[in-house]
Task: structure prediction
Amino acid sequence: MSATRRQLLARTGAVGAGIVFGGALAELFAGTAAAQPLGRTGYGPLVPDPDGLLDLPKGFRYRVLSREGDPLRSGEGPVPSHHDGMAAFAGRHGRGGVHLVRNHENRVDARIPVPVTDGLTYDPAGKGGCTALALDARGEVVSERVALAGTAVNCAGGPTPWGTWLSCEETEDRAGTNGYTKDHGFVFEVDGADPHRSGAVPLTAMGRFQHEAIAVDPRRGVVYETEDAFLKPFGLFYRFLPEKPLGGLGSLRAGGRLQALRVPDVPDLSSIQETGTTFDRVEWVDVPDPLALGTPVRLQDFGPRGITHAQKLEGCYWGGRSVYFVSSFARGADGSAADHFGQIWRYDPDHHRLTLVVVFGPGTDVQLPGESPDNICLAPSGGLMVCEDGNGAQHVFGVTRRGEVYAMARNAQNIGTAEQPEWGEFAGVTFSPDGRTMFVNCYTPGTTFAVTGPWHG
Result:
């Protein structure tokens, strides 16, 4: 095990974030071929939005594509609440079109549920699911409809190499709980362009637990999965070895093997604090009961050597030849081995190597210090876009290839009061295939924004 450390601190106006980098990050910050290096302050300070929705740097502009409570263009009902994970795919409405698949993290008490829809509903008692938006080449919304209904707490997920979306239920509720008629805690495949092709079929072999996000190895077809468990025992990092890897829509239903990551002699990843710390031979252990028929997976018996846990495992994405996954934060008061404000880990399957590559430091514009990174995506500028899910004001942060941190967007919608302001988190940040538009959700009030501007300038 080796360790290196390089700490960089940057501030943009009143917003600051400390981030520590280590290890090989070339592929993490590769960006696109058209990427241009940013200045030392990113795109400049945020400009207050006179409409009180979204603060952006000068030269950028937004459009509201969809907002909870407005009518779905399909006529199926109102736009559901709690916009969360999202992905953008090349569309079918002319050159340059895009279709978005968007999760709704609705629980049983959701204000606006995903409408129950014939052929797309798993459990009529479930209030969550996905909606799909199709945009033409001008960025105009031409359709908006239900893509999956009757699921629960659809948090994040991830795209597949064949152009579908894997939507993850972040719950372990069984049939008979909260009025549900079926067990929940599964992954569902969604074809945003034609939802009836995918239907509402749980991918049961991928496990039943508090799913957060997934990433697919485009060479091997292995699916990596995070488990967002806030309280001890914390979640696990998984891989799913499908019987029919890279087989296209529906192939994951054929089943496969679910395994959990074991780092020898490290029961809790929060105990690792130095960037660049590397474990050269991690292990993968078969999950005894993926359906968790008797015991939640993270509580199951993985043998005398145990298994490796981590608090708040959230974002997960593929970059270059590795999978990256996020631990949003860790707190000793909750039972973690140590405190941190956010980590990004890199697993290299070619060498079975795990490395801590990014550590987030305390911020300056939150009530409880820390950035709490959640959804993360690669940016056309050759860096990262990070959705903040903490306390106080909520931002989308950018991280340049030089490690500079800047504020890209700030939620200006106060959902609290003047005395106790509160802002909804950001989620689902993603870019159009051509890199010209950033799409991002505000969780509450549920809003989907399209942000354009001088991304490569």
